[in-house]
Amino acid sequence: CKTHPGSVDEFQEELVIRPLHSGDIYASFQFRTLWDTDFLQEGQKVSHYRLFPKSLGQVLSKFSVRELHISFSQGFWRTMQWGQPFIPSPPGAELWVWFHDTVSDVDGNWKELTNVLSGIFCASLNFIDLTNTVQPSASFKPLGLGNATDHRFLRYATLPREIVCTENLTPWKKLLPCGSKAGLAVLMKSEKLFHSSFHSQAVHIRPICQQCSSKAWELRQTLNVVFDLHTSGQGKKEWSLFKMFSRTLTEACPLASSSKVYVDITDNPELFELSPATPLLGQAVVLGDRRTYSVYDLSRAETFGQLRSFNLLLRWKGDSGDMLRPLLHAERYVAGFGLQTGEIHTVIYNNHPYRAFPVLLMDSVPWYLQLYIHTLTVTSKSRDNKPSYIHYQPAKDRHRPHLLEMLIQLPPHSMTEVTVQFERALLKWTEYTPDPNHGFYVGSSVVSALVPSMVAMRTNFTQDQPLFSSFVPVKEESSYFVRVYTEPLLVNLPTPDFSMPYNVICLTCTVVAVGYGSFYNLLTRTFQVDEPSPPLSKRLANLIRRIRGVPLLT
Question: Domain residues for 248?
Answer without folding.
Answer: 10-324
